[in-house]
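ok new one. same drill as before - structure tokens go in, u give me an amino acid for every spot. 152 of them this time. try not to just spam alanines like last time pls lmao
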């Protein structure tokens, strides 16, 4: 969702045992870049719902969100101010089915191997490296800090 140049985004690190899922994007602003499943929050959409929806759309997996590494505020490579809500989760259904037009590849990888990627390989590398650092330091907070969206 964009409002006055501000884009609200959700991102999810999906864990399976000691590995995390990363995807290689094929989006106009991120061709051949590795990222966690992520996308924009749609108008009127609950943040937690948006995170689960984006994972489902991009990977085919249903996820249970179980934590957050926090909120990240940055200027993107497309010069938008981005407020990114990053979550951790685990697969609880579905099967790998990459979104054809936007996702080229996926890989399960150990978190400490994520630091080996060059900046050119990552989408928004400064932010991703901050998220990776929080994951490595196990700076993951309870998801209970997020309140469900109130209905009208």
């Amino acid at each position: 969702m964009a409002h006055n140049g501000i884009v609200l985004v959700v991102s999810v690190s999906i864990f399976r045992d000691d590995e995390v899922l990363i995807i290689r994007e094929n989006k106009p602003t991120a061709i051949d870049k590795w990222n966690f499943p992520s996308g924009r929050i749609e108008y009127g959409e609950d943040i937690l719902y948006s995170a689960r929806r984006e994972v489902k759309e991009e990977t085919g997996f249903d996820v249970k969100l179980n934590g957050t590494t926090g909120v990240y505020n940055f200027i993107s490579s497309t010069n938008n101010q981005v407020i990114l809500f990053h979550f951790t989760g685990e697969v609880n259904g579905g099967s790998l089915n990459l979104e054809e037009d936007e996702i080229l590849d996926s890989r399960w990888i150990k978190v400490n191997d994520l630091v080996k990627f060059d900046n050119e390989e990552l989408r928004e590398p400064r932010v991703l490296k901050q998220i990776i650092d929080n994951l490595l330091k196990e700076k993951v907070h309870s998801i209970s800090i997020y309140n469900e969206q109130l209905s009208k």
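The chain has one domain: 2-143. and btw The chain is about 15% helix and 45% strand.
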